[in-house]
Amino acid sequence: MQRIVWLWHTLSMQFEWQLAWAYWRGRRAKPSGNGFISFIALLSVLGIALGVAALITVLSVMNGFQKEVRNRMLSVVSHLELHLRSDPQADDQAMRDAMAKHPAVLGMAAFEPLQVLITRDDSLRAALIRGISPADEAKVSSMVAAMPQALRESLRAGAWRIILGRELARSLGVVTGDRLVVIAPDLGNQGTGFAPRMRQFEVVGVFESGHYEYDSALALIHLDDALKLNRQSQVSHWRMLTDNPMQVRKIASELAQQLDDRYELRDWSQENRVWFEAVQVEKRMMFIILTLIVAVASFNLVSMLVMTVVDKRADIAILRSMGAGSGSVMRIFMLQGLASGGLGTALGVALGLCIVSTLDSILRSLEQIFAFEVLPKGVYLLQRIPTDLQAGDVIEVATIACCLSFLATLYPSWRAARTRPAQALRHG
Length: 428
Hints:
alpha+beta
């Protein structure tokens, strides 16, 4: 009995697939009346394909920009920062040495941050000075490691030399060899009010991280000079480089177990949380907006299937008279709609992959034809459009497109299943 049921179900599904395939290809005895339905079907397939391709391309470009900015940011900021909030104790060095030996920690360097004002002639700019030990800093910062060795070694203790971000140097109007004055505020231990400390520095070079926020506000000096300027005798800040910045929170939780309450451990994602949350919101909104394009294209499937149901009323009546159930009729038209949706999704994925892989060449051609720059180099500091195609995004887009296509088939298929054979034959 089970074999009979299985055989009947198999034959039924084969019959449904064959009819769905025949309707999808537009076969019928009177081909002259079938052109408009075929045109609507073509539009629905092309609409889904273009929507899927646009969604894959935009998500890849947004992922690429996010990755590019993140990498440039991580060349300047610390993966992890350790801050001592009270007086040091005898066992602190052993504690930090144990942290530096963690398998995920690639390097550790002391630094001293200062919020200052930098002035030269009539120019005055707020800036963040980072006091560094050049040899140790090169182990935790790819930006410093990429500097010429002579430039790094020019930062010597007591020499009072400074390296400025390119935009900061430009705003101050200084070049290598010029001198400027750094003003550091000091409230004083006696509560006597604002007592600024001023020191003259020699500009020995500039750096360019590719991130405007740091190029316009960051300067580097030697660690000993920063401690003197800040009137500190010991270091209380350390930077750490990890082997996987994407897992930095997990690494931080493991390192935090070795610390007491006198220390504070912060990771780069916390320091830049607002920026990354804004990027995620923007990506989510773009995903929703572009998904509406796929949804609108899926609505064409509704129109196409409704017209097909009306066109095939006589065929449906004959099928019902021959014993086909309402479920079989419904599945025939659902399979027809899913075939169009699946074809559109497949074409869209293929088109999206082609666009992403050749996007730079496409944009270069457009720039030559229309004589404009997509990415002005003076603003974005990029040689090409960054893309990062992620398999998860492609699978998610394809799944959503197929689901929307499936939902679009429900109402027309339900209407086809409710067709009454007698009325359809009478009016057919």
